[in-house]
Amino acid sequence: MALFAVFQTTFLLALLSLRTYESEVLSEPLPLTPESLKVSVNSTCQCLHLQWTVHSLAYHQELKMVFQIQISRFKTSNVIWVENYSTTVKRNQVLHWSWESELPLECAAHFIRMRSMVDDARIPKPGFWSNWSSWEEADAQNMLGHDPLFVFPKDKLVEEGSNVTICYVSRIHQDNISCYLEGVQIYGEQLDRSVSAFELKNVSFIREKGTNVFCKVDQGGVLGGIVLFVSKVLEEPKDFSCETQDLKTLTCTWDPGSDTGLTKQPSQSYTLFESFSGKKTLCKHRNWCDWQVAQDSQETFNFTLLAENYLRKRSVSILFNLTQRVHPMTPYNLLPKNVGATKATMTWKVHSIGNNSTLLCQLELLAEGKVIQQSNVSIKVNGEYLLSELEPDTEYVARVRCAYTNHFWKWSELISQKFNTAEAAPSEAPDVWRNLKLVSGHPTPLSKVHANGKILFYNVIVENLDKPSRFEVLSIPAPASSTELTLDQCSYQIHVTAHNSVGPSPASVIVVSGDPGNEEVEKGRVNGTEDGFSVSWKPQSGDATGYVVEWCDGPQDLPCVLQWKNLGPNTTSTVIRSGAFRPGVRYNFRIYGISTRRMAHLLEKKAGYLEELAPSDNPQVVMSKLTSRSFTLSWKDYSTESQPGFIQGYHVYLKPKAGEQCHPAFEKTVLPEDSVCCKYTIDNPEQKTFVVENLQPESVYEFIVTPYTSVGEGPLDAFTKVTTLDEYSHTLIHIILPMIFCILIVMIICYLKSQWLKEKCYPDSPNPYKSSVLSLIKSKENPHLTIMYVNDCVPDAIEVINKPEGSKIQFLGTRKSPTETEFTKPAYLYLLPTEKNYSGPGPCICFENFTYNQAASDFASCGHFPVTPQAPRHQLGPLTSPENLLKALEQNYMNSLGEIPAGEANLNYVSQLASPTSGDKDSLPTNPPEPALCSEYKMQTAIPLGLASAPPSENSSLSSTTLLGQGEHCR
Amino acid sequence: MLACLCTVLWHLPAVPALNRTGDPGPGPSIQKTYDLTRYLEHQLRSLAGTYLNYLGPPFNEPDFNPPRLGAETLPRATVDLEVWRSLNDRLRLTQNYEAYSHLLCYLRGLNRQAATAELRRSLAHFCTSLQGLLGSIAGVMAALGYPLPQPLPGTEPTWTPGPAHSDFLQKMDDFWLLKELQTWLWRSAKDFNRLKKKMQPPAAAVTLHLEAHGF
After folding, report:
1. Per residue in A252-283, pLDDT tens?
2. Closest Cα in chain B, distance from residue A68 (Å)
């Protein structure tokens, strides 16, 4: 037991000692620690470059080792990068390792250390790291100058799209530093008291001179900056290919893509490398390069094109056989030889390729821009080919290109040559037709010639068939293609030949009959399609040698451009095509049969439309026979021939009055504008009248007549309004018209007798001699009565009779309103010339009621009489002159005649029947006042002197006196 | 008295001393130099706009006024007013000649660095004009009997776009080159204007002493 315990103790001690030994051995640092670690800074690439050695290795010993590298920034504890670097190490070998910093190295101090570990399978128990080397500091700030502000990295070249970190180092320790990218402020992160960093992401190209980044101290005048050069990403060359023209020189071409063109970086370079020969050449051009083929008959080439700039390399390769890349040079000296009317020989030359190489040349012949012949010829140096089946007098273009016969790669460039074939006599007779004018009988032959040269003239020989001995020869110079011949009623045969410089064509013969023939032929219609008109006709029984279809190319209303088509004797249908055909135009076709005598007989007439259209216009409708219940419409001037389709009939639309139903003959329809209408269809295009019946009297209707074709009807836009008559209006017309006529007759008669009527009914002035009353008086009552002329009357006094009931008396005598006073004051006018200073009442002309005392005329001193207040105020002034006075009084008199009824006037005028023997006539004043001037005279009966026996009485004097005294009008 | 004045004025053209004929002297060439200076001022205005846009912001910003870091070798046009006034004609012309000799050299370097063909064309045209101005100044100096300044050995201006000179500083130099050129042209216009006035024929006016003895 004790022994067991001792043994156990001993074992444990031994084990403990072994563990202790092992631990001592294993913890001992290996002798492979990195030594001589040196760190350098490369500002251009912003790289830290490390170099070190491992001295402890045995001579000639190579070990695979791992070096763990730690990088700290600003301080050793701030480890920013750890990387294991594996390599094979020899004794005293200087090892290198580089690290590119994102942050410009000038902006921060970096610390580096490393340790190593043997990682070699030959060494047992590997896997122990050596001790760390001491920290090495890389501080680029020490290399800076004394400027207050630095911005890094300087003049860096980056690719477009990359991220760049910019930083600044400030020695003035101010916070007010702003940084700008192309003038725009940027914001970053402050890394240290004097260092800030800005990350620019996905930078883009701005200009060749670089992108400016600068920082400045606000209001300090301190400024620092850098230029960041952003290059576009180098593109891979495209379409890289090589070819040779002579098997001696290869020309390689490619598309280089874009070039940034930075001032900091030259354009990308291109290098051509051939792998079999191991040769390479630096290309002088951006997109092509020549390569000289060596004389050692190398056939296969493997080219690599390397594009390269400071930032990137791109390459593209091709492998090819030289003989499969032969692109011959353009042939030369292509010339026509022995050019005839239908044949020509072309010759040309090619550049030789190698020795005894053959080329395949392609010769093409073009006429009017289209290839009409193509031939392949194998040649060595000289080519020749005979072109045949050419058209006389035609311009051709021959062109040649060649390719390498052994292996087709590419055609050479084309060489072209133009030439003309020679002329030949026209091969065909001219195509002749005539346009027969029935009225004048002039045929007009037209021709279309297929000539083998330039037609110089046409010969027209006109032969009278009825008189065979008579010929007429006409020569019509080209390019005329028609002529007009005047023929009589005989039959003529016309020969037409075309002539060019070589000779005449075969003759074309037509016969024109003197008889215009039977024009009454069958008329039909022909349908037009997209291809044209398909015209068919019945075959002519007999000896027809052919047919001619004739038509005019233009519409009917334009001058006819005559067209025709010759057809064989067995043809009974054809399709007439023309680019001139238009939809909606009627074309008339005439089919002629040509007899063996070359005479044309009209067989059929056909009309058709390429495409029928709806009528564009409606007929001009005339309305007539309007009654209370019907009216008639007619459009007889409407031509169905000139319409854009075959007129099938007409639609008569009638808009009824509201609530009225359509007549049974009409069909109710709805117009496009949703109005209801009655429609009547006339299915006969020749019926051009229509009577609208069963209408309501005195109602407004609207109608329109529109034609219709198979496509549709005309426009429904302009309805015409019509109002039916009143049912009794015609009766009234029967009465009113005669009445109007009668009135008119009466008016005419009245007009013709107006003078007579005037004299009878309303004479211009009261002419007592003309008055019928006078004649009555004369004849019936008193034959001695006569007319007293006013001129013969010498007024001497005016007597105003004071009628007790008359308002005028009151007016004249008692009423003294201020107005009246004004009027009455100047109312006394001197009738006779008197002394100015007349003051007292003098003798007056006295008109006595119903009496006139001629003796009173002896009182010559009465020169004034009153003027009635009714006299217009404006007359008062001018009355002072004798003429005005006379006029005024005359007017006043006339007024009184017209306005004042007899019996109401205060002053009565009695026609003064002056004695014809009165000797006072000559003693009248120059402007005697006529009695009529007294406005309110009554008609006075003149009494002959004999009857007026009584002298002026006291009463009369009194009356005068009274007048002067009462009225205060006389002075 | 008025009649006397009129008579004097009427006979002024007949005074032989006032009608100089024969050798025109340096006057016309000074005038031509002055005109060329003004023309170059105008030409530079357009060229500087284009070139500063080519440099990009902040160099094309109107208020950009960077410190004169690397442009110390450029001849300064700014001078104290009193100093400028105290310059004699020879010194004045010599300074102009030397300044444009230097500036022309720098400008040619600028032309070599330009990336665009159009800019190179404009710069070359301006250089030609500036060369003409230099010749014109030399002509004026010769007319006045002044010798041309000889460059001291080792002081020839050189264009050294070395790696030590960063692109940003280079742009600043370009900026200052154009600015100094502008200032020099302005100063030259004043110089030649002053010289022109100085060289004008003297006594072109007659001082008339008029006394009024009381009317």
Report:
1. 999 998 887 787 778 889 999 999 889 999 99
2. 35
CA angle B128-B133-B137, nearest 5°?
Answer: 150
Instruction: State whether residue B171 sits within 8 Å of chain A by CB.
Output: yes
Last residue in a domain, options A706, A730, A754: A730
Q: Is B116 on the interface with A (CB under 8 A)?
A: yes
Cβ B166–A210 below 8 Å, yes or no? no
Domain extent at residue A77? 29-143
Q: Within this chain, do residues A35 and A122 fall inside the same structural domain, yes or no?
A: yes
A466 & A545 share domain: yes
> Contact at 8 Å (CB) between A947 and A785?
no
Question: Which sequence spans correspond to the domains of chain B?
Answer: 26-198
A263 DSSP 8-state letter: S
pLDDT for A321:
92
In a domain, A11, yes or no: no
Query: Domain check: are A469 and A574 in the same one?
Result: yes
Interface test with B, best of A205, A207, A209 (most B CBs within 10 A): A209
pTM exceeds cut of 0.90: no
* Nearest chain A Cα distance for residue B165, angstroms: 10
Three-state secondary structure call for residue A421: coil
Compute how many other C-beta atoms are within 10 angstroms of the C-beta atom of residue A542: 9
- Amino acid A346: pLDDT: 94
Domain membership of residue A338 (yes or no) is: yes
Pairwise pLDDT comparison (A851 vs B119), residue with the higher score: B119
Residues shown for chain B: 215
Higher pLDDT, A144 or B202: A144
A502 and A520 both lie in a single domain: yes
Q: How many other C-beta atoms lie within 10 A of the C-beta of residue B177? A: 20
Residue positions counted in chain A: 971
Give the CA dihedral A42, A48, A54, A59, nearest 10 degrees.
-40
Would you call B166 an interface residue with chain A, using a CB distance cutoff of 8 Å? yes
**Per residue in A524-561, pLDDT tens?**
888 888 778 888 888 877 777 888 888 887 766 667 77
Q: Range with the lowest mean pLDDT among A395-399, A440-444, A578-582, B143-147?
A: A440-444
- Of the pLDDT bands very low, low, confident and very high (cuts 50, 70, 90), residue A291 is very high
Evaluate whether A34 touches A81 at the Cβ level (below 8 Å): no
Euclidean distance between CA atoms A167 and A188, whole angstroms: 9
Given CB atoms, is A182 within the 8 Å cutoff of chain B?
A: yes
Please report whether residue A637 resides in a domain: yes
Chains A and B form CB pairs within 8 A to the count of 56
Out of A175, A203, A231, a domain closes at: A231
Residues of chain B contacting residue A214, judged by C-beta atoms under 8 Å apart? 58, 168
A375's tokens: 């031939």
pLDDT value at residue A257: 87
**Structure-derived torsion over alpha carbons of residues B170, B176, B179, B181, reported in degrees to the nearest 10:** -90
Domain containing A639 — which CATH number?
A: 2.60.40.10
Does residue A473 sit in the same domain as residue A525? yes
Chain B, 32 to 71: residues with Cβ < 8 Å from chain A are 54-59, 61, 66-67, 69
Do B57 and A183 make contact, defined as CB atoms within 8 angstroms?
yes
Do residues A218 and A272 share a domain? no
Same domain for A461 and A605, yes or no, is yes
Interface touch B67/A226, C-beta < 8 Å:
no
Q: Which residue of A has its CA nearest to B112?
A: A263
In a domain, residue A184? The reply is yes
From residue B54, alpha-carbon distances to A813, B109, B155 in Å are 122, 16, 30
CA distance B140 to B149: 13
Multiple choice CATH, B26-198, 1.20.1250.20, 3.40.1170.60, 3.60.110.10, 1.20.1250.10 = 1.20.1250.10
Nearest-by-CA chain B residue for A156: B167
* Window A:218-237, CB contacts with B under 8 Å: 221-227, 229
Counted domains in chain A: 6
Q: Are residues A511 and A556 in the same domain?
A: yes
